[in-house]
């Protein structure tokens, strides 16, 4: 992460997310899918959280971005620490409805946009 003054908000947001991740994870059902808008990779802080019996809280992961190359890189990066994590990248913009993969549709899930985590039903 860069140390330039211009990235103060990014650094601060990441530190807040690291501190809040356990509390957010405690409020989610086990194996809740996550959809990350913008595919920045910051959902990784939440993906590393486990429930009381050491099961990952978030599973699978759906990164959404317009850049296919970014999605391909993210898929490899997020699976490095969690080989069990199913990753379903979606190349899309936000001007059209986004269709989620079948194994995620209909489930309670975490919609994550850095700075604005929320639980979607």
Question: How would you sum up this structure, described in words?
Answer:
It is a single chain. By secondary structure, the chain is of the alpha/beta class. The chain has one domain: Vaccinia Virus protein VP39 (Rossmann fold), CATH 3.40.50.150. It is 29% helix and 19% strand. The chain has three helices and five strands. Strands 3-2-1-4-5 form a five-stranded mixed sheet, with helices on one face. The termini are far apart.
List keywords for this structure.
single chain, 121 residues, alpha/beta, 3 helices, 29% helix
Q: Which series of helices and strands comes N to C?
A: HEHEHEEE
Backbone structural class: alpha/beta
Q: Count up the domains.
A: 1
Largest sheet: 5 strands, mixed
Can you tell me the CATH superfamily? Answer: Vaccinia Virus protein VP39
How helical, in percent, are the residues?
Answer: 25-40%
Tally of DSSP β-strands: 5
Q: What ranges have pLDDT less than 50 throughout 5 or more consecutive residues?
A: 115-121
Q: Look at the structure and give the mean pLDDT.
A: 76
Q: What's the total helix number? A: 3
Give the amount of beta strand, in percent.
Answer: 15-25%
In one word, what is the shape?
globular
CATH architecture tag: 3-Layer(aba) Sandwich
CATH topology term: Rossmann fold
* Rg over CA atoms: 14 Å
CATH class call:
Alpha Beta
**Straight-line distance between termini:** 33 Å
Strand order across the biggest sheet?
A: 3-2-1-4-5
Short summary of the structure?
The protein has 121 residues and is of the alpha/beta class.
